[in-house]
What we know:
The chain has one domain (about 10-280): Arginase, Chain A (3-Layer(aba) Sandwich). Helices cover about 30% and strands about 15% of the residues. The protein has helices at about 40-50, 80-95, 110-115, 145-150, 165-175, 190-200, 230-245, 265-280; strands at about 20-25, 55, 60-65, 70, 100-105, 125, 155-160, 180, 205-210, 245-255. The strands form 2 sheets. It has an 8-stranded parallel sheet with strand order 4-1-5-10-9-6-7-8, sandwiched between helices. A two-stranded antiparallel ribbon has the order 2-3. Helix 5 (about 165-175) links the parallel strand 7 (about 155-160) and strand 8. Helix 1 packs across helix 8 and helix 2 (about 80-95) crosses helix 3.
Amino acid sequence: MLLYEGKDSFLEEVVDFKKSKYVLLPVPMEISTTYLKGTKFGPRSAIEASRSLENYDSELGAEVRDVIFTVGELEIPPDAEKAVKVIKETVSDVLREEKFPIMLGGEHTITYGASLAFDEDVVFVIFDAHADFKKDVLGSQINHASDSRLISKRNKVAILGVRSLSKEDKKELEKNGIVVLYIDDIEEKSALSRLHTLIKNKKVYISIDMDVFDPSIAPGVGTPQPGGLSYQSALKLLKAIVTTSKLVGFDINEIRPLGDNNITEILAAKLLIDIVALNEK
Length: 281
């Protein structure tokens, strides 16, 4: 694991690794992307965007200072299976150091790699416009559209904000007992109750695919879908998850820079600050 600190760090803070609590891993993986390219540039762009933000989180009344150590970008091999292994080993290194892993991506496959570093009792709560439950894509089982399926083989999974899936996906989700909160019922008490039952007092890992948001506030993604979450709705859900469970890691992925229109990277960086602030509180 390449360790460095300085002007390329998140929030441009010089943080001592030994004193840090969180380790941020930029993962520029882009192997199985099937629509819009460019997610490999997402991690760097989100880190650059963080420098326009304050480390005081006014929504949560908390300051995020001197706790996030930024690692150099991971070198990702072009083979998906090998890439997943690199991610697993790197996250395992972070956990062995008794640090809290955060990843910025990169295609959503990075979450599957991270899942292999955790025990099977960790619940994965995935924010995503897509179910990501396909058996394979173009003959490959390890890909961004099969991420939730792959993780569910070892860990319990909940998917929030879904509004794009096939009929076959829906049948598979029901067959496997996956908790799914579709976008139309995501704030209904019955849906939230199912999520609460799954995660209460459990170890939880959060994964946020940026396409879970409405494209009006997050246009820079690989596979945008209309009708997504607002920032405030997402923050409300994140508060409920973090206060109900024990957070052990998280990632924010599928960030696709659009040049001067960097509102997606700003949102991603802000979410990272929000989640750390919530966990600290």
